[in-house]
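User: Teach me something about this protein's shape.
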Amino acid sequence: MRDEKMEIKKVRELKKLTQKEAAEITGLSLRTFQNYEYGKSKRDLFKYNNIIRILTEYERISEDKGILKKEEIRDIVSEICNKHDIKYVYLFGSYARGEAKENSDIDLLIDGNIKGLQFVGLYDELCQKLHKKVDLLRIDDIKDNIDFISEILKTGEKIYG
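Assistant: First, the predicted structure itself:
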């Protein structure tokens, strides 16, 4: 017999949801959700599987919904950049200023030995994992715009490297 209470908890934690958030998403009271998660409710396999399905399909963040925390961006960017020859990454724009809105994109400046298809692959992976539109600039592509680079370095935040 599998440990079903852990399965709900694992899905909830994977989605980085609190019990209260998960209860709201599934349409249950907090106490009822907790009873299912802790295994205190009588097993209703249909309801149990429905809770798991709803949580599994739930996307907290999408291009036009939700705001990521800087720590989440930093963690995801670090995980991805560790697989590439990237020296550093700066977060700039609304996310760096703490003014992001639900439909804000994520502005990143990178320095590294990455071009062509590798750059496209990096961009695609960032968009996929961040669930947001990403404006990804290579420092080599804007090296002639000293004022813009200075502004990014001054107001942005180094999140990798």
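Now, about its shape. Residues 1-5 have pLDDT under 50 and may be disordered. The beta strands are 86-92, 106-112, 134-138, 157-160. If you'd like, I can walk through any region in more detail.
User: That's plenty for now, thanks!
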